[in-house]
Amino acid sequence: MSSYRVKRYAAGKACLIMLSAVVLLTACVSKSELNVQDINLSLYTDDMDLQAEKIQIWWDDSFGVMYKEYMGEYLKHGFEGITFDVFNFRRPLHSSSTTSRDLFQELLRKPAPDLIAFDSMYLPFFIESNYLSSIDHLDSFLVLESSALDELRAVSSDLQLYAIPYGESVAGLFYNKTLFDMMDAPYPRDGMTWDEVFELASQVKNPRLWMSLSTWEFGLVASQIPLKLVDFDAEAWGKWEQFIGQFLRQREGEQYSTLNVDFLDGKAAMFASSLFYDDPSYHFDVNGHPRLSKIDWDVVSYPVFSAEQPVAPAKRMLLLGVPRMAENKEDAYKIIRYLLSQSVQSENMRRGLVSLREDAADWTEEFGSALWSGKSTSFIDRSIPTGEFEMSMEKHTMEHIVTHTWFTTNNRWNWGLKWELDAVRKEAMQYQARREDVIMQLQEQVDQYERFQNR
């Protein structure tokens, strides 16, 4: 087969037209340079030749960053002559449509890719299904934080490494400075508790014109408690119900919405969210212009429940894994080493995706510089202990599973909370059943593949 070598190249200029699903980082303040510098290949492998002419990559669209801007450009410039065939999938059960690119559906009906990039909350699913190859043999080439690697190893009972972090989407409390100024209210600050945020929301409340506090990633909050779909009478569920009650009360009389476009359009004073999350189409107006450029915003750390014992939301990492049934495993391993190079990782840091390389702290001041200027970076402090996701809550957000709200006839929030425990339990059980069914089918596929390979 043909052999292709990594292309060494100087930094070239490229305009960042951010089509990614960046919840807040969608404004390109000026032309930015593609800072992918010449790579010393000896640091990663003696031979970066790829044997395949085409590499299949699966990319998690629901994570919130676009393949082209956060991986495709690097591979195009780095591997001359190689075709990268990319399939963009969506979170499981995102839609009942058979054409929704649902992860569960596509895993069962498509051949395995050579490389898969996915949200870290799905790592337990992939390990249980025996879908991923161990990449422990790459450990000596990895220059990543040992704590991050240890966290990923701990997911598996054999403590092996089945995926590596390509980057992290950090969460924060974003705020519209103009709306706060209009209400003569103090700006949010780092380290605020949820109680303090709700109090601040009351000071900037103006139901006729904007929302005081918006969010749609309730799963982040649930991970801070942490909430488990096991014992519905547990203390954690009481804490969750109290939080939802507070959230709905501060939304009383406001327009019903949980979409990030409200913040991007200047119709929300505060927005608690990950930097990167979900569908890119939400972040641009009908003319293709980024909505964020319309507002004067800044960001502080994500709220916590206790200032004395703070717990940040569970980490949302974009992981890279190599399926056991991949056709070009060795090529995939070489690509991973290339993608973990300082050149690629530092450029992604400039684009708002936090690197987990050991030396990433040296480029913290560059965080987001390709997208904005003059914004706070203190919110990316990763020293606070993090919560954890309940595997049963992989289905998008806790809002869809747990909360059922009443609305008035004019589509405004009513702060009443309708608690349908049986409906919550039923939906959780349906999701778990579907998850377990897919796991069993994937295990069978992998077993058949490996038996055939060992013949």
Task: Give an account of the 3D structure.
The chain has 455 residues and is of the alpha/beta class. The chain has two domains: 12-169 and 316-366, 3-Layer(aba) Sandwich (D-Maltodextrin-Binding Protein, domain 2), CATH 3.40.190; 171-314 and 389-430, D-Maltodextrin-Binding Protein, domain 2 (3-Layer(aba) Sandwich). It has helices at 67-78, 103-109, 123-128, 146-153, 177-182, 194-203, 218-224, 235-250, 261-264, 329-339, 342-350, 398-402, 421-453; strands at 12-14, 32-34, 54-60, 83-89, 115-119, 164-169, 171-176, 211-215, 268-274, 297-301, 316-321, 404-407, 413-418. Strand 3 (54-60), helix 1 (67-78) and strand 4 (83-89) form a beta-alpha-beta unit. It is globular, with a radius of gyration of 22 Å.
Question: How would the blueprint of this fold be written?
Answer:
Layout: E1 12-14, E2 32-34, E3 54-60, H1 67-78, E4 83-89, H2 103-109, E5 115-119, H3 123-128, H4 146-153, E6 164-169, E7 171-176, H5 177-182, H6 194-203, E8 211-215, H7 218-224, H8 235-250, H9 261-264, E9 268-274, E10 297-301, E11 316-321, H10 329-339, H11 342-350, H12 398-402, E12 404-407, E13 413-418, H13 421-453
Parallel strand pairs: 3-4, 3-5, 8-9
Antiparallel strand pairs: 1-2, 5-11, 6-11, 7-9, 7-10, 12-13
Helix pairs in contact: 6-8
